[in-house]
TrEMBL record:
Protein name, UniProt field: Response regulator
UniProt-listed PROSITE patterns: HTH_LUXR_2, RESPONSE_REGULATORY
Residues of the HTH luxR-type domain: 144-209
One Pfam family here: GerE
Location of 4-aspartylphosphate modifications: D57
Domain Response regulatory positions: 7-122
Cross-referenced InterPro entries: CheY-like_superfamily (IPR011006), NreC/VraR/RcsB-like_REC (IPR058245), Sig_transdc_resp-reg_C-effctor (IPR016032), Sig_transdc_resp-reg_receiver (IPR001789), Tscrpt_reg_LuxR_C (IPR000792), WalR-like (IPR039420), WH-like_DNA-bd_sf (IPR036388)
Length: 217
């Protein structure tokens, strides 16, 4: 029996960006998926496809991405919704989380990084993660959610300050440590959470219950 391919929906009002991203994803080493496109939230939810992951532009005419998260979740309750934005600002991330977003990808990233992020979230939406072995190639294994219990207390405190928008310099001053030490702490936090950016780390922490909503000011 052949299992259906995972399904990905790209929602962006710029056709060139959608088509370019689709071509980029199709030509990458990403897990094979059915990729669909829509120029608006309304067009997206009108489609009959079941989707595992929705890549949603945060700023569109009419109903923007943040306002559309509720419609997306109503149409596809089990899908992951990841926001796309040309700006990687903490306030945008906080708004996206409050509206129910699963993740946040900056359009300013290099193409390879965007593909890697999409791959990451597609696999998470399937309850899988990618484990690359040089000898045997790619294998898929169940995801184990990151937890606060295995995050050292100091790193947890640093994570809370990241969520509040503090810089490495400000965090270092708060704890009386060097910026080098804080950079290492932040790198460890990102690795633990499977994140590439500080913004994504906070998103993942919220989605997995490591950071309560009250930790975001």
């Amino acid at each position: 029996m052949t299992l259906p391919l995972p399904s990905l929906m790209l929602v962006d009002d710029h056709p060139l960006f959608r088509q370019g991203l689709r071509m980029m994803l199709s030509s990458s080493n990403m897990l094979q998926a059915d990729i669909h496109e829509a120029g608006s939230v309304t067009d997206a939810v009108a489609q009959a496809h079941w989707v595992n992951l929705v890549m949603l532009d945060i700023s569109m005419p009419g109903c923007d991405g943040l306002e559309g998260i509720g419609q997306i979740r109503k149409r596809w309750p089990g899908a992951y919704v990841v926001m796309l934005s040309g700006h990687d600002h903490p306030e945008l991330m906080r708004d996206a989380v409050r509206q129910g977003a699963s993740g946040f990808i900056s359009k300013a990233l290099e193409p390879e990084a965007i593909c890697a992020q999409v791959q990451h979230w597609l696999l998470r939406s399937l309850g899988m993660e990618q484990n690359i072995h040089k000898a045997s190639g790619r294998s898929l294994e169940p995801v184990s959610k990151p937890s606060a219990e295995v995050l050292p207390l100091r790193q947890y405190e640093v994570l809370k300050m990241l969520a509040k928008g503090f810089s490495n310099k400000a965090i270092a001053k708060h704890f009386g440590l060097s910026e080098h030490t804080i950079r290492n702490q932040v790198a460890s936090i990102l690795k633990h959470l499977g994140a590439d950016t500080r913004t994504q780390a906070v998103l993942v922490a919220q989605r997995n219950g490591i950071l309560p909503a009250t930790a975001i000011k």
